[in-house]
């Protein structure tokens, strides 16, 4: 329940506070006294669009603050705590303070329980607490989405439960269809990539390189290309180490010279231990040189000077060079690429299976969505007749006794839509149905959409009738009506007051009115007066006592507070309203 609203610097309101209570509170006053600014302020608290032109000239900012009492364990209280808000204790529950600030420079700030929050979060938190029905909100009834939402609220769980599941499946279908479209769009790119990979892998498989083969082949080619030089060097070195009589040279080699030196020392080694040690070292040197000479001979014999082998090695080198140039790396890099390319090719080859899986999933979700859409549509159609009858019953009490309202449930053909029966129909997150409220003002008249068949006053009464019908669904919330009685008078005005009073049994109702017939049903009557300078201050918002209500209703009836005739009529209105409210 909204206990208090304070408004500062908004339009004609300088600084005013309204103390509110349960039941029906009406706000009246002279034209231009600021009643509409109260509705604007409540709309801002509900997260409505900020109109910076409402900031009072000469002030830097406009401020609206509301004090609400909510159940301690409610979902709203939990949401407030989740965002770090502080709730004060109250005998009736938890106190939630919300606010909205507009600056003349065009900035807006929202507050929830002492925390600065986005206006969207303020709207989310307050949407189940305050419903503002102003002139612009009445126009929302003309929107197909609003009409469908009204029917769904009336239908209750019969629509809400399958519609909730429908929304989940709809989102899943959207994701699956998007993924399938992406897979399909990229199929050509994948095919091209796979073909390039196959060509590259086929070339690697044809060459069949071995790890490090390019390095080993380079070394072999160097030996093959310089075979004669290497043999000559090895043999010359061998001859220097070890004399070979077969070569025709009698010059001793290094091995012979070392052996001769060892023999010389060996003859006198017994004379001195140091000389004996040197002789041992010469023995080791001789043996080492003999081993090197043998290795040089073997090396010379191992050199392959076969021209055919050289040609084969050069051809192999050309093949390996082709691979390394194509991939910009060495043979080890080529083999690493081939390993990665093989895995990537398996992924690409499996993409077709992914598309098949997504297609099957899409078809499965489509079938489930069709089933749920049909269930929702049937539930809406079943509720539509009851809804129309309930609204018509309320209209009968609002001086439209012969009027009827139809809630027409239909679908639109769409070649790309959902296959329902033998048709393809348009669909969205709320199902396949278009809901249109049609007004039949009297028997025999054609049913016409409310936006075409209802006058301004009739539209206000249709809206009020719908709110009364739906009232049980959101009992306990605050409902604000801005001149819902516009365009009506007489008995219709009395019936509007009666309906608002009935609505106030389960809701806190705040009504801005200019009709005394409506004001007479109030549980609390506030009147707004402007000061001499044209502003509204705290002293300008007055809660009327019984005598004050008589005077205000007299003014509203005849424009004269002290008119005896008007006062009598006002007292009669108040007595009739009190008697009506006393009935069960």
Automatic annotation (TrEMBL):
This protein's GO CC annotations: bacterial nucleoid
GO molecular function: ATP binding; ATP hydrolysis activity
Coiled coil residues, start to end: 348-375
Stored InterPro entries: DNA_recomb/repair_RecN (IPR004604), P-loop_NTPase (IPR027417), Rad50/SbcC_AAA (IPR038729)
Similarity remark: Belongs to the RecN family.
Keyword list, A-Z: ATP-binding, Coiled coil, DNA damage, DNA repair, Nucleotide-binding
Protein name as annotated: DNA repair protein RecN
Family annotation (Gene3D superfamilies): P-loop containing nucleotide triphosphate hydrolases (3.40.50.300)
Its job: May be involved in recombinational repair of damaged DNA.
Domain Rad50/SbcC-type AAA, chain residue ranges per copy: 5-50
NCBIfam families: recN
GO BP annotations, alphabetical order: DNA recombination; double-strand break repair; SOS response
